[in-house]
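Q: I'm building a small set of examples for a reading group on sequence design. Run inverse folding on the following structure and report the sequence directly after it, with nothing in between.
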């Protein structure tokens, strides 16, 4: 058992005096014992409920189940929080500081320990020593970012249609295409060279109609260089068509039509085909270009708009089809991610107005959420959510937990602990398993604010949650590796079933072998970041006084 880190002799003597006075009675026979005085000052509160909650009260663990306690410091000063929890039968106590603010907070000095093995909780109280770096998930693979985030608010505000606007006739009907047709597409390879965006010749290889929630024609265009290389067979394209059809149907049943009628003359119309453009030589796995929704005629002096393809289009890396292991994810899951960007751009950016577009971190979170929602356990490819969750845990030892939630640096790098897509994918996985597709739909339709944090807070409350602050605190305790099937509501990553949606469980035990806690204490807790640590193999009582930074919370988990 760990020694107390701070002596409390004066307080102990004071308590003994109180107990002695109470034991003296008052000279009356049968007098009731004097209750102890109420606690004053900062103290923990229980943060879980229900039959799976192992926290009896602020100071007692039931001995089984998952107990969770918390303290939130809403002040601008550090706060000393005395922790005293009894009834612990030799289990690890997992702790996590979570920054609830948009500014860095200085962390207090901490003694770090290794946690016990997940199943066989053998004693492990050795102080952490410098360990070898965690395996780098980016090694030997192409960049894994779906795309580089960019600012949608930089695009021009659409123009309302007039009775004589030329766009009314231009968009009367979309041109029909036949297999074998050729077309040049403006494609961005995200190399950031001067010629990064260039015309690519393609040929239409498949065209088909999809009915259902959003009836539309879908076209598959393949870059001629990819066709010439012979890497995409007819059989592969047939399978791809089937996967695209199924995924498009799943996405639109959750989100509705990806594009619809709009009141603007310089924006493409509702009846446009969806084009899937497959190319090689891209630094990202796929992307959508919001400039494609603009009609070039209206912006002769804007070079960016002059490179609009005037089409609904998703651009995908060919290697996600013929060599998915080299690019971390498969085509179909990434396709659902990109479709979601089109949906949110149309309903929030076009119809709502640029000010209602979500910040990159939340825009990517909802796209990753859709990827999770449409994935089915019977799908042939492994779950991208499960893979990224494992990577997020691995990168956590290097500092990947203590990352600004808003940091969407797109490409993983050995010299950066923070990789935004791992973080937002795991956040999306948490949100969907706790709140389901209703939260996704709420985020799509929530115009309560132009601030993305406020939108998420409001949407969580709309579906019965406790808001952003409680969500971030509970999400920030994920390194405790919650059991998927036995955690209280609000914690962990349980399986979830809603109609045709089946979210796979992310059980803590499965990730224990590759997960290690940070082996050093950073100077600062980053905005919306968190720092987990452990007190291992506590038998009986855990007592420690902890300093909670300003605008931050402390979570304690015993499982």
């Amino acid at each position: 058992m760990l020694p107390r880190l701070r002596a409390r002799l004066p307080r102990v003597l004071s308590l003994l005096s109180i107990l002695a006075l109470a034991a003296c009675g008052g000279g009356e026979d049968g007098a009731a014992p004097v209750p102890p005085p109420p606690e004053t000052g900062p103290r923990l509160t229980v943060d879980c409920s229900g039959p799976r909650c192992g926290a009896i009260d602020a100071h007692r663990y039931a001995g089984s189940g998952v107990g969770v306690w918390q303290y939130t410091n809403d002040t601008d000063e550090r706060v000393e929080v005395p922790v005293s929890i009894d009834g612990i039968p030799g289990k690890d106590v997992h702790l996590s500081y979570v920054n609830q603010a948009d500014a860095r907070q200085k962390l207090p000095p901490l003694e770090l320990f290794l946690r016990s093995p997940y199943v066989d909780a053998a004693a492990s109280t050795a102080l952490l020593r410098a360990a070898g770096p965690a395996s780098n998930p980016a090694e030997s693979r192409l960049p894994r970012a779906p795309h580089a985030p960019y600012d949608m608010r930089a695009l021009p505000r659409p123009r309302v249609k007039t009775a004589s606007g030329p766009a009314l006739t231009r968009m009367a009907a979309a041109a029909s295409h036949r297999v074998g047709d050729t077309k040049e597409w403006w494609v961005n390879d995200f190399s950031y060279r001067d010629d990064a965006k260039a015309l690519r010749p393609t040929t239409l290889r498949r065209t088909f109609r999809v009915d259902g929630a959003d009836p539309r024609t879908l076209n598959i265009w393949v870059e001629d260089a990819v066709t010439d290389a012979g890497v995409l067979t007819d059989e592969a394209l047939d399978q791809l068509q089937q996967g695209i059809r199924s995924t498009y149907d799943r996405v639109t049943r959750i989100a509705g039509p990806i594009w619809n009628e709009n009141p603007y003359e310089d924006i493409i119309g509702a009846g446009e085909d969806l084009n899937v453009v497959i190319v090689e030589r891209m630094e990202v796995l796929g992307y959508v270009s919001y400039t494609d929704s603009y009609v070039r005629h209206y912006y002769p002096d804007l070079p960016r708009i002059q490179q609009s393809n005037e089409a609904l289009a998703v651009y995908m890396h060919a290697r996600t089809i013929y060599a998915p292991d080299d690019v971390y994810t498969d085509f179909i899951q990434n396709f659902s991610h990109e479709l979601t960007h089109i949906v949110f751009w149309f309903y929030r950016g076009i119809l709502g107005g640029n000010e209602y577009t979500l910040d990159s971190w939340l825009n990517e979170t909802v796209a990753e959420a859709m990827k999770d929602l449409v994935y089915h356990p019977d799908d042939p490819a492994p779950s991208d959510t499960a893979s990224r969750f494992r990577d997020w845990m691995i990168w956590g030892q290097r500092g990947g937990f203590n990352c600004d939630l808003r940091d969407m640096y797109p490409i993983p790098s050995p010299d950066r602990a923070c990789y935004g897509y791992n973080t937002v994918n795991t956040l999306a996985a948490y949100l969907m398993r706790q709140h389901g597709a209703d939260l996704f739909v709420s985020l799509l339709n929530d115009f309560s604010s132009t601030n993305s944090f406020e939108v998420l807070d409001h949407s969580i409350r709309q579906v019965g949650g406790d808001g952003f602050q409680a969500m971030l605190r509970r999400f920030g305790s994920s390194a405790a590796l919650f059991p998927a099937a036995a955690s209280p509501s609000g914690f962990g990553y349980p399986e979830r079933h809603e109609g045709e949606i089946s979210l796979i469980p992310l059980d803590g035990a499965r990730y224990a072998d590759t997960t290690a806690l940070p082996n050093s204490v950073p100077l600062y807790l980053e905005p919306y970041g968190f720092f987990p640590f452990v007190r291992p193999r506590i038998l009986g009582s855990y007592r420690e006084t902890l300093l909670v930074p300003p605008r931050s919370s402390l979570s304690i988990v015993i499982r």
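DSSP finds 14 helices and 17 strands in the chain.
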